[in-house]
């Protein structure tokens, strides 16, 4: 706040824009590479891979695989359990072997690879949830080495607050 008191005129607007840029840069959706360094392939237990992870609204799944053999299909729960790829809800396969899925609905998602690979373990079930509310007010420890949030879910609220503050300062 001391910096804002010293800044005047056009400098105030610049300070507000700098604050906005800092707020937005700290807030972004998480991009999950499915299977981490193994990618989307056989002999990976994707249930174990997803265990303990939280997938939030606006996150992304990045599937990396052999484009000549495998695919990425979204199916319903019944077809997921049966490894049935005949009527997928959506086929994310682009042919490049680098497919991205935007998790823009909070619900369970079921992915399989057809062509028999599902039977070899190429299936992933996740539940996408809303970003939890921020913790209640507590003193900020500037020396904390805790990781910062990497989710974009609260960006509209941050932007609204910054713009409201900027408007109040300018008027």
UniProtKB/TrEMBL annotation:
Tagged with keyword Cell wall biogenesis/degradation: no
Q: Give one GO term, molecular function aspect.
A: electron transfer activity
**Which keywords belong to this entry?**
Disulfide bond, Glycoprotein, Signal
| Family annotation (SUPFAM superfamilies) | Cupredoxins
- Asked if the keyword Transit peptide belongs to this entry, the reply reads no
Q: Which GO terms describe its cellular component?
A: plasma membrane
The cross-references to Gene3D superfamilies, in alphabetical order and at most eight, read: Cupredoxins - blue copper proteins (2.60.40.420)
Q: Which residues form the Phytocyanin domain?
A: 30-130
Which family is this sequence assigned to? Belongs to the early nodulin-like (ENODL) family.
- What is this protein's name? Lamin-like protein
**Lineage, opening ranks:** Eukaryota, Viridiplantae, Streptophyta, Embryophyta, Tracheophyta
Q: Which gene encodes it?
A: LOC111469068
